[in-house]
Amino acid sequence: MEEFKLMPRTYGRFEDKTIVVTGGGSGIGLQTAKDLHRDGAFVHIIGRNAKKLTAAREAIGGGSKAFVHQCDISQEDQVALTFKSIEDTSGKIYGLVNNAAINPSRNDATHTEIKDWRDTLEVNLTGAFNCSKAAVGQMLDRGEGSIVNISSVGGLNAFTTRTSYNASKFGLIGLTQSMAIDYAERNIRVNAVCPGYVKTELTAPLFEKMGKDKFEALVSAHAMKRLGRPEEISKAILFLLSEEASFITGVALPVDGGYLLKG
Ligand SMILES: NC(=O)c1ccc[n+]([C@@H]2O[C@H](COP(=O)([O-])OP(=O)(O)OC[C@H]3O[C@@H](n4cnc5c(N)ncnc54)[C@H](OP(=O)(O)O)[C@@H]3O)[C@@H](O)[C@H]2O)c1
After folding, report:
1. pTM higher than 0.90
2. What is the pLDDT of residues 50-78, one digit of tens each?
3. How far is the CA of 248 from the centre of ligand 1 (A)?
4. Burial 185-196 (b: 16+ CB within 10 A, else e)
């Protein structure tokens, strides 16, 4: 039997549509930006680190439809300027992937520093709100739009000792539902993807620190007995962004190899 392979889609589902990926300089965001570019979009990556952004543009192929923007999404004024410049470059935004996130505190509430709590909420939740607010005006003007928020399985079923991260990811699902209901009649869909564990810049230090036994237990917590791959998360994001999901709004889709089944 032929081996199953995740083949790249190449048929231009997003031809010449302007799509923004926050945190597209690494991990799941970078894979999503690559796949969108291959599928015909004008892709705009947002991040804070200029070197990472330059490398990401090269990784995508550096063509005339890939753009990078240095911007801290927690800063409303920076976001407003960046989204205006995106519109000026390739036209009004069709799609937004709110993917950027941090996870500085691995603690219960008692041991969570207020700075870590605030930083996490400011990036993971307020950052997504800032970008959604800036994008939705352009989507209303064009009469269509699709937003995908990257939450987590920890946004549906709390991880132990991740107070601020869990709260931010539950909040993101609240933002998803809230915006979905407010803009549904105006042809703007808003959904969330909730990944299980995937090895990226965000999680690699955690995996290294936890040691072999705990890492194996984490892998086993996924019913499929493996971690996810960035391209498996990206496929779900592109589906929800696309016309293929034209009657889907307000959902939080687990892409988790059965992690949530294991409770
Ligand atoms: N990996 C997993 O196992 C997993 C599981 C569940 C959910 N997720 C979610 O999936 C998403 C992607 O995760 P990942 O693992 O791919 O992480 P990652 O590689 O660390 O990517 C996160 C990106 O966010 C950017 N970023 C952070 N703060 C920012 C800010 N204030 N403004 C703009 N950009 C900012 C970072 O770029 P700069 O450093 O350049 O700012 C970085 O490229 C996150 O929302 C994460 O919570 C991941």
Report:
1. yes
2. 999 999 999 998 788 999 999 999 999 99
3. 25
4. eeebbbbbbbbb
